Amino acid sequence: MPGLLRGVARTAVVAGTASAVAGRVQRRQASKFAEKDAATAAQRQQAYDDQVYGQQQGYQEQPPPAAAPAPPPPPAAASTDVVQQLKGLAELRDQGILTDEEFAAQKAKILGT
To answer: Are 110 and 82 in contact (CB under 8 A)?
Structure first.
């Protein structure tokens, strides 16, 4: 019987120790996560306060700078250049490199229609 009591007592000590350690780890992790949550909440509150304070004082966020104006379109191509391009497309079509549909699409692109 004394051996049985000793075994039960040892089991109780091991279980109690494990429970105490687990509780301590859990409290430490909860504390660490609470600190992180508090820091995050403080940062968000500060950002909100900055935004509200700025609006109450009449300060507005500066709009992003306007994009630079688009460069002017290149000067219109000379009519001889358009004619040369169309002749080149016609040659490609005659050689069988371009289909009639591809030729028509490129022709429309060159003529701007």
So the answer is: yes
Q: If DSSP codes are grouped into helix, strand and coil, which group holds residue 43?
A: helix
- Hey, what are 81's tokens? 């250049």
Other CB atoms within a 10 A radius of the CB of residue 86 amount to 15
Short-list 80, 109, 56, CA closest to 101:
109
Domain ranges of the chain: 1-60, 79-111
**Contacts of residue 61, Cβ cutoff 8 Å, sequence gap at least 6:** 54
List Cβ neighbours of 89 (8 Å cut-off, separation of 6 or more): 98, 103, 106, 107, 110
Q: How far is residue 97's CA from residue 104's CA, in Å, rounded to a whole number? A: 13
Gyration radius (Cα) of the chain, Å: 40
- Token readout for 91 is 């040659």
The pTM of the full predicted model, rounded to 2 decimals, is: 0.32
pLDDT tens-digit profile of 36-88?
888 888 888 888 888 877 665 555 556 666 666 666 666 555 567 888 888 99
